[in-house]
C-alpha cells in the first residue's frame, strides 16, 4: 500500500576505521497514544451471519462495523500482507493499518485475532467499541495533496517528474553523490519551477530548495541527530545539499502520517517522511516532520543491546566440539563433541546446506536449477557466522573456519600462552565462531518448534515454500571490533537479514571474556528478533521501540536465556555473570522466586533507575520467571525443551514424555488439536510464544499478561487460568494493576494489583 523512494548516498571518509570504537548511541521514542486495552472474547453477536465465512472476510466485517461510527470521508484501511494463520494453533492474526486520503497512518494499527469463525481478541478502548490507535479526526481536504498542497491533476504531473528523477537512483542500487547528473538536474529545475509551494517556515530559514516532495533534507537532518561521530556531523552540515554521508546502504523513504496526542485526549495527524536509515551501529526507522525536517516525531532503533550498567558492565550433519546446549558458559561445564545436533523439522537441510540461488554470497553466480550448496564453513540456511575484528558492516568475505568435507569443527581453547600470559581471544577465534554458529542454530531450531517459523517471520535464507519472506538469515559477528562489554541484535522487517554483534568483555581487565561463549547473551540477543517479528506482525519492526514495550523486548530475552539453562533442581540465576566476571551478573538482582532476593513487582518500574528498557525488562523477566515456576510446581519439569521428531506420517512417538496424549485425524494423521507440552517449563515457553503473536503492537505489561492468559485458553482450554492469575498477581500484576500517564521513557504512575478474578479466589 506504499511505495518507497531510495535516497542514494555514499560513506564519508570520516567513517574510516578508527583505533578507538565510537560509543554506540541509540534513539528510540515516539508519541504516547491513548492506551488500548487488550480485549478478550469481545461481543460478536452482530457477526453471527458471517460465522461460516473465511477469517479474512470476518476480519473485514469486524473492522468495518467498529470503524463505521467515526471513519469519515477519506478514512480507510488495509490488511497487511504479513497477516497469517498459525498452522499450529489455528489462530488467524490480522494486522490492520489505517489510511487517510490514501496515505498510511504509521501508528494506526490493530492486531485482530480470529479462531473458529470468532474474533477472540483485539486492542480497543475502554468500551470495546472502537480502535484507539486509529485516527478519528478530519482528513486533509479532498483533491489537495497533503505533501505539496497542489491540486490532484497538478500533483500527477509533478509525480511523473519525481519518478523520472528517482528511476536512475532505483536502478543504481549503490551509493552515489546526490545531484551529480546534468539531466537529472534539469528535471529537478522543472520540478522546482512548477511543483514547489512556498512555505513561511522554509522561507524563514532561507532555503528555497527545500521541497515537501524531497526527503533528502529530512534524511540529512536526521543523520545529524543520530550520529555520534562529530567529524561526520560536521561533514554533513558543511555539505548539506551534496550527499547523504554515513549511511551504509541507500535510505528508503515514504510519506506517512503519525498521530500526535493533544491535551484533550484526541490526536492530530503530522505528515512525515518515514525513513529507514542503516548506520554503522544502528538501523533506524524514523519519522521526520515534512514541514520542518528538524523535528523527529518518532524513531525506533532496530538494534537492541544486551544492556550493561556503565559502572559494571545438503550434508545435514556436522560435528562440533562445543559447550553443548544447556551449558551457559565455560564455568558451567566442559566441552563435548556434538554430532548432527540439528532438528530435522526446523532445519530439513541441516545447518550447512541451502539452495544455491538463496545464498547471499552467491547472488551474482549462475547455478543449474535446484542446485544445493553443501557448505563446509560456518554458514548455512539459518546463520552466517564469522569474525568481525574490524567492526564493519562488510561481512560476506569475513573469515570462517572450515570443517572440511566431513564437517568436523574441533578447535583448541587455550586461555594462556606457553609463557603463562593470558591469551588474546583472537587466538581461539575458530572455536569462538564454531560456538556462535552452534548456539545460534540451536536457538533457531528450538524457536521454530514453538512456532517461530517461516510464515511468522523467522530468519532463513530459504523458506521451503512455506510462506513468509526469505533471504534473511542472521548475520552473526564474532568478536566484533566495534565495541566491548555488550552485544546487540538488529531486527529489520521480515525479508532483511538480522545482524547480531557479539563483543569481547574487559570489565576487570585480563582475562578478557568472549561474549560468544556465554550462551545466555547469544540467546538474549536472538530473542530480540523473535519478539520483534512476532509482536505486531513480521513486517513491522517498530512495535517494541520504547517504554514498557521496549522493556519487555529485553525481558523476554532474559527469561528465555534463563529458562534454557535451568535444571530440575531449583536455582537462582544471574544474567551475564560469566562475560562480565560479576557474580551477580549485569542486572540489579538475580532471577529468583524469593522476593527477598529479587523484590521486583510491577510498581518497581516507578523507582528511580527503572526508566531504561533494560531495567524495565528485568522486572518483566522476573515476573515471567515466577509464573513459570508456578507452572513447574503444578506440571513438573522437562529435562529438554526440544519436542520429539514426528515420524514420516506426522505422528509423534507414543512413549514420548514431552507432550500430553495426542489424538490424530484418521485420514490426515495430523493432530486434531495443537499438541500440549506436559511440563511446566515447556508449556510456559509455548504460552509466551503464543502470547507474543496475540498481543497488540506496543503492548504494556498488562496487555502481555492478558495475551499469555488467552494463549492458555486457546491451548489448554484455560486449565491454568487461575494459576496464571495468581502467579502474576503475586508480583503486582493482578486484575487491579494499573498505570496512569505512561511515557516513552517508561514513566507514569503504577499501582500494584494483587487481586485475581472472583472465580479464582480461594
Report on the architecture of this protein:
The structure is a single chain. With about 750 residues, the chain is α+β, with helices and mostly antiparallel strands. It has four domains: about 5-30 and about 145-300, no CATH class; about 35-125, Nuclear Transport Factor 2, Chain: A (Roll), CATH 3.10.450; about 320-540, Roll (Elastase, domain 1), CATH 3.10.170.10; about 555-640 and about 675-760, Neutral Protease, domain 2 (Orthogonal Bundle), CATH 1.10.390. The protein is about 25% helix and about 15% strand. The protein contains 14 helices and 25 strands. The strands form seven sheets. Strands 2, 3, 4, 5, 6 and 7 form a six-stranded antiparallel β-sheet that branches. The protein has a five-stranded antiparallel β-sheet with strand order 1-8-9-10-11. A five-stranded mixed β-sheet has the order 12-20-21-19-17, covered by helices on one side. A hairpin with a 7-residue loop joins strand 22 (about 505) and strand 23 (about 515). Helix 9 (about 545-565) packs across helix 11 (about 615-635). The two termini are about 50 Å apart.
Number of strands: 25
Could you tell me the mean pLDDT?
Answer: 79
Uncertain segments are 2-23, 142-154, 168-183, 197-211, 236-245, 306-314
Q: In one word, what is the shape? A: globular
Separation, N- and C-terminal Cα atoms: 52 Å
> What number of domains?
4
> How much of the residues is beta strand, in percent?
15-25%
What class do helices, strands and sheet pairing give?
A: alpha+beta
Helix count, DSSP H or I runs of 4 or more residues? 14
In CATH, the topology of the largest domain is named Elastase, domain 1
CATH first level of the largest domain: which class? Alpha Beta
- Helix content, binned percent: 25-40%
Oligomer: single chain
Any idea what the radius of gyration is?
A: 26 Å
Largest sheet at a glance?
Answer: 6 strands, antiparallel
CATH architecture heading of the largest domain: Roll
Amino acid at each position: 500500500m506504499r511505495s518507497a523512494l531510495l535516497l542514494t548516498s555514499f560513506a564519508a571518509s570520516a567513517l574510516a576505521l578508527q583505533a578507538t570504537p565510537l560509543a554506540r548511541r541509540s534513539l528510540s521514542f515516539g508519541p504516547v497514544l491513548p492506551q488500548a486495552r487488550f480485549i478478550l472474547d469481545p461481543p460478536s453477536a452482530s457477526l453471527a451471519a458471517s460465522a461460516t465465512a473465511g477469517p479474512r472476510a470476518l476480519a473485514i466485517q469486524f473492522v468495518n462495523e467498529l470503524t463505521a461510527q467515526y471513519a469519515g470521508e477519506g478514512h480507510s484501511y488495509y490488511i497487511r500482507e504479513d497477516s497469517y494463520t498459525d498452522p499450529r494453533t489455528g489462530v488467524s492474526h490480522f494486522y490492520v493499518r489505517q489510511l487517510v486520503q490514501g496515505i498510511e497512518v504509521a501508528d494506526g494499527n490493530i492486531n485482530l485475532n480470529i479462531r473458529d469463525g470468532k474474533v477472540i481478541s483485539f486492542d480497543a478502548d475502554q468500551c470495546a467499541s472502537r480502535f484507539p490507535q486509529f485516527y478519528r479526526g478530519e482528513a486533509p481536504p479532498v483533491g489537495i495533496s497533503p505533501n505539496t498542497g497542489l491540486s490532484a491533476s497538478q500533483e500527477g504531473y509533478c509525480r511523473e517528474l519525481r519518478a523520472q528523477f528517482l528511476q536512475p537512483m532505483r536502478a543504481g542500487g549503490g551509493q552515489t553523490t546526490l545531484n551529480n547528473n546534468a539531466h537529472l538536474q534539469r528535471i529537478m529545475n522543472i520540478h522546482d519551477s512548477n511543483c514547489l509551494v512556498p512555505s513561511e517556515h522554509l522561507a524563514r530559514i532561507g532555503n528555497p530548495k527545500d521541497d515537501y516532495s524531497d526527503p533528502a533534507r529530512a534524511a540529512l537532518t536526521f543523520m545529524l541527530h543520530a550520529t555520534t561521530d562529530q567529524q561526520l556531523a560536521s561533514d554533513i552540515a558543511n555539505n548539506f545539499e551534496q550527499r547523504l554521508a554515513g549511511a551504509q546502504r541507500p535510505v528508503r523513504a515514504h510519506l506517512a502520517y503519525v498521530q500526535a496526542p493533544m491535551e484533550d485526549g484526541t490526536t492530530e495527524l503530522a505528515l512525515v517522511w518515514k525513513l529507514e536509515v542503516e548506520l554503522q551501529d544502528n538501523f533506524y526507522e524514523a519519522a521526520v516532520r515534512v514541514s520542518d525536517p528538524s523535528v523527529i516525531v518518532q524513531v525506533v532503533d532496530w538494534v537492541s543491546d544486551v544492556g550493561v550498567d556503565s559502572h559494571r558492565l545438503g550434508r545435514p550433519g556436522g560435528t562440533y566440539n562445543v559447550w553443548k546446549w544447556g551449558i551457559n558458559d565455560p564455568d558451567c561445564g566442559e566441552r563435548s563433541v556434538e554430532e548432527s545436533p540439528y532438528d530435522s523439522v526446523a532445519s530439513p537441510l541441516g545447518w550447512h546446506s541451502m539452495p544455491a540461488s538463496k545464498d547471499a554470497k552467491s547472488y551474482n553466480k549462475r547455478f543449474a536449477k535446484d542446485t544445493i550448496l553443501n557448505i563446509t564453513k560456518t554458514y548455512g540456511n539459518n546463520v552466517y557466522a564469522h569474525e568481525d575484528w574490524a567492526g564493519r558492516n562488510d561481512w560476506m568475505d569475513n573469515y570462517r573456519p572450515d570443517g572440511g568435507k566431513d564437517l568436523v569443527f574441533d578447535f583448541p581453547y587455550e586461555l594462556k600462552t606457553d609463557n603463562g600470559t593470558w591469551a588474546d581471544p583472537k587466538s581461539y577465534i575458530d572455536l569462538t565462531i564454531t560456538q556462535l554458529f552452534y548456539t545460534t542454530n540451536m536457538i533457531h531450531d528450538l524457536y521454530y518448534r514453538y512456532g517461530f517459523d517461516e510464515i511468522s517471520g523467522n530468519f532463513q535464507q530459504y523458506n521451503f515454500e512455506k510462506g513468509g519472506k526469505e533471504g534473511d538469515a542472521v548475520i552473526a559477528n564474532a568478536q566484533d571490533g566495534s565495541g566491548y562489554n555488550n552485544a546487540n541484535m538488529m531486527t529489520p522487517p521480515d525479508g532483511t537479514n538480522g545482524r547480531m554483534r557479539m563483543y569481547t568483555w574487559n570489565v576487570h581487565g585480563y582475562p578478557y571474556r568472549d561474549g560468544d561463549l556465554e550462551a545466555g547473551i547469544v540467546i538474549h540477543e536472538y530473542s530480540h528478533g523473535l519478539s520483534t517479528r512476532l509482536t505486531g506482525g513480521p513486517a513491522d519492526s517498530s512495535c517494541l521501540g520504547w517504554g514498557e514495550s521496549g522493556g519487555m523486548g529485553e525481558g523476554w530475552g532474559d527469561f528465555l536465556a534463563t529458562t534454557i539453562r535451568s535444571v530440575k533442581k531449583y536455582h537462582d540465576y544471574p544474567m551475564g555473570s560469566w562475560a562480565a566476571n560479576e557474580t551477580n551478573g549485569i542486572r540489579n538482582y538475580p532471577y529468583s522466586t524469593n522476593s527477598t532476593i529479587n523484590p521486583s513487582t510491577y510498581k518497581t518500574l516507578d523507582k528511580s533507575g527503572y526508566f531504561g528498557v533494560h531495567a524495565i525488562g528485568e522486572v518483566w523477566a522476573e515476573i515471567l520467571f515466577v509464573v513459570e515456576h508456578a507452572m513447574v510446581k503444578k506440571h513438573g519439569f522437562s529435562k529438554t525443551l526440544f519436542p520429539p521428531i514426528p515420524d514420516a506420517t506426522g505422528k509423534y512417538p507414543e512413549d514420548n514424555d514431552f507432550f500430553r496424549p495426542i489424538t490424530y485425524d484418521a485420514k490426515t494423521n495430523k493432530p486434531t488439536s495443537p499438541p500440549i507440552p506436559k511440563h511446566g517449563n515447556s508449556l510456559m515457553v509455548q504460552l509466551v510464544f503464543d502470547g507474543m503473536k496475540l498481543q497488540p503492537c506496543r503492548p504494556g505489561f498488562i496487555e502481555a499478561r492478558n495475551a499469555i492468559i488467552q494463549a492458555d485458553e486457546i491451548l489448554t482450554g484455560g486449565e491454568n487460568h487461575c494459576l496464571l492469575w495468581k502467579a502474576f498477581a503475586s508480583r503486582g500484576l493482578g486484575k487491579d494493576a494499573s498505570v496512569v500517564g505512561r511515557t516513552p521513557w517508561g514513566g507514569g504512575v503504577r499501582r500494584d494489583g494483587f487481586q485475581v478474578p472472583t472465580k479464582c479466589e480461594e
